[in-house]
Amino acid sequence: MAAEVFIQRFPVSHADIDELEHVNNTVYLRWAQDIATAHWRARAGEEAVAAYVWVVLRHEVDYRNALTLGEEAEVRTWVDDAPRGPTWARFVDVYRAGAERPSVQIKSNWCLLDATTRRVRRVPPEMAARFFVQNAG
User: How far apart are CA 15 and CA 28, in angstroms?
Assistant: First the structure.
């Protein structure tokens, strides 16, 4: 099995641009949050989405090439091979649409919480399995 790569595109708008005339670092983190949430909602199932919430413990960001006004970002995300108890690493690569190499790479550590009690919960294996695809080989 391999982790599914989930992709979304985001246009770079004037509000995303900082005083250096490129996308502000906080925008990349917003895109990482937005795509993580979309991926979770698309794959976890209604029961899991209602029962659990995620909180970020850490972001690591490597900036390689700046995106600028009018460009489109192609954002790709996938999860690590396996959760570790309640935590699960997620990767996000931000590409200039059409580029071969990412402009920004983000690794985030997320922690699963019970939606009602906000207590830490182990990631159920059956839920984790929804984020992987079977190899066709």
Answer: 13
Q: What is the C-alpha separation between 6 and 61, in angstroms, rounded?
A: 19
Tell whether domain 2-133 is in CATH 3.40.50.12780.
Answer: no
- Enter the pTM of the model: 0.93
What are the domain boundaries of the chain?
Answer: 2-133
42-89 confidence digits (pLDDT tens): 999 999 999 999 999 999 999 999 999 999 999 999 999 989 999 999
Cα–Cα distance, 21 to 24 (Å, whole number): 9
**What is the radius of gyration, based on Cα positions, of the chain?**
16
Alpha-carbon gap, residue 14 to 81, rounded angstroms: 37
Instruction: Yes or no: say if 21 and 70 are a contact pair by the CB < 8 Å rule.
Output: no
